[in-house]
Amino acid sequence: MTADADPVWPGHPVTRLKGIGPRTAEALAEDGVRTVLDLLLHLPRRYEDRSRLARLDEPIPVESWVLLRGRVLKVRVRRVSRRRLHIVDGILDDGNGLLPVVWFNQRWLSRRLDEDREFYLYGQIREARGGRLQLVNPEIEEVGEDVERIVPVYPRLGRFSGRRLRRLIGQCLVATTGCEDPLPEALRRAHGLPGLSDSLREIHAPSLPAGDDEREDLLLAFNRGRSPAHMRLAFDELLAFSCVLAENRRRRLQQGGLRLDRAATGAFGGEGLLPFKLTAAQRRVLEEIFEDLEAGTPMARLVQGDVGAGKTAVAAMAMLAVLEAGLQVAMMAPTELLAEQHARTLAPILGRAGYPAQLLVSSLAAREGRAVREGLADGTVRLVVGTHALFQEAVLFRQLGLAVVDEQHRFGVAQRRALLEKGPAPHLLVMTATPIPRSLALTVYGDLDLSLIDELPPGRQPVRTVLRPPSARRKVFDFLRSEIAEGGRVFVVYPVIDGVEDGGAASLNEFEEEARALLPGVSVGVLHGRLNREERDAVTTRFRDGSIQVLLATTVVEVGVDVPEASVMVIESAQRFGLSQLHQLRGRVGRGDRPSWCILLANERLSDEARRRLEVICNSTDGFEIADADLKIRGPGELTGTRQWGPGGFRFADLIRDRQLISTTRAVAKSLAETGELESVRTGLARYHPVDEILQAG
Ligand code: ADP
Ligand code: MG
Question: Distances from the Cα of 112 to the Cαs of 102, 109, 115, 643, in angstroms?
Answer without folding.
Answer: 14, 5, 10, 46
